TrEMBL record:
This is tRNA N6-adenosine threonylcarbamoyltransferase. Its EC number is 2.3.1.234. GO terms for cellular component: cytoplasm. Residues 26-313 form the Gcp-like domain. Pfam families: TsaD. It comes from Aureitalea marina. Substrate binds at residues 138-142, 171, 184, 188, 279. Belongs to the KAE1 / TsaD family. It is found in: Cytoplasm. The keyword Transferase applies. It is an enzyme of class 2 (transferase). PANTHER family: TRNA N6-ADENOSINE THREONYLCARBAMOYLTRANSFERASE, TRNA N6-ADENOSINE THREONYLCARBAMOYLTRANSFERASE, MITOCHONDRIAL.
Length: 338
């Protein structure tokens, strides 16, 4: 197993992505982000499937060219089996199967959530790899989970959202404020000039390690409606303070849950992933926690945090090394637990 070269394919949501990994090092990481969803203010599944169909061949081709790897040098094809949008998953799954059959090499299914976590093991000079066991918090537009990671393929979900993902909470709040989609990064930017304690928003009470965000969105909506009735320019005049208050509420909520998870498990190594790990508030809060509470925190490079195929290729390599090969009759799974 001294020269392993795996192609990873990701198509679970609205990004068509392909990457090549060689002995733990990412040689290429190509992603085609679908712009079409912006005008709808959210991902439209049917449009996503069609765009994947259109993008997948050029994206895979580019990944091979950028890696300077010929198809014939590949050792295996790894693909996202789930969880995700069924129509989107079917495109990547069918393509991966055909390519593996054509090249007569192993096919390896990958769980997208496991991949977000194992992205921490991509061989990057400036990236420190977490030591087992650790806690992984995956926060994005599609997921919000806290996972106890005992080993590469021994993981247990100890907390998760009961409704919206945290990225959706950012995006839906931003939409109510009239910000463009996806609103998370825009809200983050505006929040930096605002007072986080200007307006209090509720933190929903659910299981100690679980999350709920649908109530926050409703609270923001009612708040904005009420204040706008009193003053039509309220949002415009208080935008920074509103954004800062929403962000503060969300970040405090995430940190509360992490603190409980650390207390329950006795583990203080925390790895985060997903698009929301770019948020300046959560990054600052984690830095503070490592200073004040002695936590060891890990954040991968942003390109390995958001949906990408490098993480799929990484899991592909880990599985190939362990002989974890899939049968060619494997099917996509929209719901696929860890
Ligand atoms: O991982 P990702 O690219 O895609 C998935 O959803 O799987 O995450 C995208 C999400 C969006 O909801 C986006 O608004 C959010 O991550 N996001 C942020 C920030 N950057 C991206 N949310 C808050 N602050 C940010 N700086
Ligand atoms: Zn994801």
């Amino acid at each position: 197993s001294s020269n392993i070269c795996v192609l990873g394919i990701e198509s679970s949501c609205d990004d068509t992505a392909a990457a090549v990994i060689q002995n733990g090092r990412i040689l290429s990481n190509v992603i085609a982000t679908q712009k079409i969803h912006e005008e709808y203010g959210g991902v439209v599944p049917e449009l996503a499937s069609r765009a994947h169909q259109q993008n997948i061949v050029p994206v895979v081709h580019q990944a091979l060219v950028k890696a300077n790897i010929d198809k014939k040098q590949l050792s295996a094809i790894a693909f996202t089996r789930g969880p995700g949008l069924m129509g989107s998953l079917l495109v990547g799954t069918s393509f991966a199967k055909s390519l593996a059959m054509g090249l007569n090499i192993p096919l390896i299914e990958v769980n997208h959530m496991q991949a977000h976590i194992l992205a921490h093991f991509i061989d990057e000079p400036e990236q420190e790899k977490p030591e087992f066991p650790f806690l992984a918090m995956t926060i994005s537009g599609g997921h919000t989970q806290i996972v106890l990671v005992k080993d590469y393929f021994e993981m247990e979900v100890i907390g998760q959202t009961l409704d919206d993902a945290v990225g959706e909470a950012f995006d839906k709040s931003a939409k109510i404020l009239g910000l463009p989609y996806p609103g998370g990064p825009v809200l983050d930017k505006l929040a930096q000039e605002g007072d986080p304690l200007a307006f209090p928003f509720p933190k929903p009470q659910v299981g100690p390690l679980d999350f709920s965000f649908s109530g926050l969105k409703t609270a923001v909506l009612y708040f904005v409606q009420k204040k706008t009735q009193e003053d039509p320019n309220f949002v415009e005049n208080n935008l920074n303070d509103i954004c800062a208050s929403i962000q503060y509420t969300i970040v405090e909520y995430l940190m509360d849950k992490l603190k409980k998870a650390v207390k329950t498990t006795g583990i203080n190594r925390i790895a985060i992933g997903g698009g929301v790990s770019a948020n300046s508030g959560i990054r600052r809060a984690l830095e503070l926690a490592s200073k004040d509470l002695g936590w060891k925190t890990y954040v991968p490079k942003f390109e390995f945090c958001t949906d990408n195929a490098a993480m799929i290729a990484m899991v592909g390599q880990l599985k190939l090394e362990r002989g974890l090969i899939s049968d060619t009759s494997v099917t996509a799974k929209a719901r696929f637990s860890l």
